[in-house]
UniProtKB/TrEMBL annotation:
Annotated segments matching region Disordered: 158-189, 584-641
Start-end of Basic residues biased regions: 616-633
Boundaries of every TOD1/MUCI70 glycosyltransferase-like domain copy: 257-570
PANTHER family to which the protein is assigned, alphabetical: ALKALINE CERAMIDASE-RELATED (PTHR12956), HEXOSYLTRANSFERASE MUCI70-RELATED (PTHR12956:SF38)
Biased composition (Polar residues): 180-189
Compositionally skewed regions (Basic and acidic residues) per UniProt: 166-179
Protein name: TOD1/MUCI70 glycosyltransferase-like domain-containing protein
InterPro entries: TOD1_MUCI70, TOD1_MUCI70_glycTrfase_dom
Name of a matching Pfam family: TOD1_MUCI70
Upper lineage: Eukaryota, Viridiplantae, Streptophyta, Embryophyta, Tracheophyta
Length: 641
């Protein structure tokens, strides 16, 4: 090939030069072909490029220069990929709603969340205003919780906000979604039983990760036949936080609830109850079960204007102010009369430690024990618990005093949305947000309590309390006879879907709304009027409310309760076991460094130890004679002979 041929442009089926040589192309059909001359410096330029390439390779062998070139190449590749990714995302329609679907699917995915594939669609929070004069709850329109979130899990909420539609409350501003011809048919306001309606695209139903969970068969263990925990399916903590309802659940019929209180309350023991409970009459008791849209009932703390201030069950002002700052979830327990040993919660997430409140109520006797056992003067904080000392207790019975925080947490924490009560003998072993999601939010319940593992009938529960000496037998009989006159019957399958009349009341999971607050108020009034055994009065209050409004309680299995709380013994039982163990297995004697002394061998026989007499084994003749001796016919034959 000559230098002139380098400038010829080849065609698909041969070169132009070949066509000219063959005479297939006439001069008149096309202009003359001009041959481009090569540049003079083409050969020398190629040599210069080869020299530059050699120099580059020589310097690239050095470490620093090689790393610099590798960095420049990687930056170029990443920049090109980012440009392509933006072009692909820009081609998708922003109103297609597919991003929202991906977010919802990622929420229920039990796998680990990452910042790359998850964006939180919504976390809305209700700023609830509480009127301290009437203790009634009013919802406001500020449904924005984003300012509270600092973790990466909460920073997912930026732009995907959903509006609240509340037709019943005109004070709530309803934000209408922007109209879109392409997606208007997919928009619909969804309203469930206990969740405020949200304007969101209608999405295909996605199964909950625990929907297919089933209980495994029980283990065959003949040595352990009593109650035991069973497996429970929890979602991860970050998922549980995302599934928390954005606004309070609707309260059926009852919208406003206030409480009776008098500064100068006069005791009237003829009505029963106590001064702390307000001595409600029987007529007031009957009227308290007639649910209306606005109600005022007795609910403890009757003597005074604010719970904890001169009402009995008095609390320091600094503690009350701090309790009012609890706006989310409160976990509470109590120990009175130094009856239990304080148990520290475990497996609690960092999020719960920052946002949930952990309160332990104690009396002065228990506070003294905590100081002596820990050696610390300041007992305001013991582990995860915020310890609150209660003075001027309303009852002599320590167990009855424990019913005040157990049933009236909504009065002690007026701004809390959810509460988890555990008895002082229990140890919380699961994060509170996981417990709330499992037993409240998953099935839209507002109140949950476990049923008794063995007894389902109130009459059986009363007899068991009498046999165990839990309370005065005459008082238990009076309460049962009173309930029988009001229509109390034995539990039967005809009460289904109610699964039991007897709860295991050591754990209460509750959302603070008017109907649940009314239920615990009336339940406390029964405990104040009759016996302190709250298992006896539970079904009566529940059935009266359920017969008037469309409301139900989640009575889950006791083995599920034993999954998230570990039950310990009361202090008196633990001390008895220690004494018994020390008597059976005495502690070993302390070892000394003194050399062993030389002693004269004792020729006396060792003293005989008195052991229980051993019954000698009978031989064959003794067995036969014994069997004949105890046989009635053989005995008659001997006497006849």
């Amino acid at each position: 090939m000559t230098g002139a041929s380098l400038g010829l442009r080849s065609l698909s089926y041969g070169s132009l030069q070949q066509q000219l040589q063959n005479g297939s192309l006439l001069p008149t059909q096309s202009p003359p072909v001009t041959v481009r001359k090569p540049a003079k410096m083409s050969l020398s330029g190629s040599r210069e490029k080869e020299r530059i390439l050699v120099r580059v390779c020589k310097f690239a062998g050095r470490r620093k220069v090689g790393m610099l070139l590798l960095l420049i190449a990687s930056v170029a590749v990443l920049s090109s990929n980012s440009v392509l990714w933006k072009d692909e995302n820009g081609s998708a329609s922003p109103d297609s709603g597919m991003g929202f679907t991906d977010q919802v699917l990622s929420f229920v995915n039990p796998g680990r969340l990452t910042l790359d594939n998850v964006r939180q669609p919504f976390i809305l929070e209700t700023d609830t205003e509480f009127d301290t004069t009437r203790r009634s709850v009013h919802e406001s329109g500020n449904l924005d919780f984003s300012k509270e979130f600092t973790d990466p899990i909460q920073n997912f909420v930026n732009s995907d906000r959903l509006s609240i539609n509340n037709d019943k409350d005109p004070d709530l501003p309803a934000k209408e979604p922007k109209p879109d011809n392409n997606t208007s048919s997919m928009q619909k306001s969804v309203t469930t039983n206990n969740v405020t309606g949200l304007s969101a695209p209608m999405l295909p139903s996605t199964p909950h990760p625990c929907e297919s969970f089933s209980f495994p068969p029980p283990l065959a263990d003949k040595k352990r036949t009593g109650p035991r925990p069973c497996p429970v399916c929890y979602v991860p903590v970050e998922h549980a936080v995302l599934l928390m309802p954005p606004s309070p659940s609707p309260s059926p019929l009852l919208k406003s609830l206030s409480y009776i209180s008098e500064v100068n309350l006069i005791a009237n023991e003829s009505n029963g109850g106590s001064v702390f409970g307000g001595h409600p009459s029987f007529q007031e008791r009957i009227e308290s079960f007639n649910i209306k849209e606005s109600m005022t009932v007795h609910c403890g703390f009757a003597k005074g204007m604010k719970p904890g201030q001169g009402t009995g069950f008095d609390i320091d002002e600094t503690d009350l102010l701090e309790m009012e700052e609890c706006h989310d979830v409160v976990v509470a327990s109590a120990i009175f009369g130094n009856y239990d040993i304080m148990q520290q919660p475990k497996n609690v997430s960092d999020y719960a430690k920052r946002h949930a409140c952990f309160y332990m109520f104690v009396d002065e006797e228990t506070e003294t024990y905590i100081k002596n056992s820990s050696g610390s003067v300041n007992t305001k904080r013991v582990g995860l618990w915020r310890v609150v000392v209660v003075r001027n207790l309303p009852y002599v019975d320590a167990r009855r005093n424990g019913k005040v925080p157990k049933l009236l947490l909504h009065r002690l924490f007026p701004n809390a949305r959810f509460s988890l009560w555990i008895d002082g003998k229990l140890e919380l072993a699961v994060d509170p947000y996981q417990v709330l999601e499992r037993f409240l939010w998953r099935k839209n319940y507002t109140f949950a309590i476990s049923r008794h593992y063995k007894r389902f009938d109130v009459f059986e529960e009363a007899e068991a309390n009498k046999a165990a000496g839990k309370y005065d037998n005459a008082s238990i009989d009076f309460q049962i006879e009173f309930y029988k006159k009001e229509g109390l019957t034995h539990y039967s399958p005809s009460k289904l879907p109610i699964t039991s009349d007897v709860p295991e009341g050591c754990v209460i999971i509750k959302e603070h709304i008017p109907i649940t607050n009314l239920f615990t108020c009336l339940w406390f009034n029964e405990v104040d009027r009759f016996t302190s055994r709250d298992q006896i009065s539970f079904s009566t209050v529940r059935d009266k409310l359920m017969s008037r409004v469309n409301w139900t309680i989640n009575m889950f299995m006791d083995c599920e309760r034993r999954n998230f709380v570990v039950q310990a013994y009361h202090r008196d039982l633990l001390e008895q076991r220690k004494v018994l163990t020390a008597s059976i297995f005495p502690p070993p004697s302390e070892a000394t460094n003194e050399p062993p002394r030389k002693t004269v061998p004792d020729t006396r026989a060792p003293p005989s130890r008195k052991l229980p007499p051993k019954i000698p084994a009978r031989r064959g003749r003794d067995k036969r004679s014994g069997s004949r001796r105890h046989h009635p016919r053989s005995a008659m034959g001997k006497e006849s002979n």
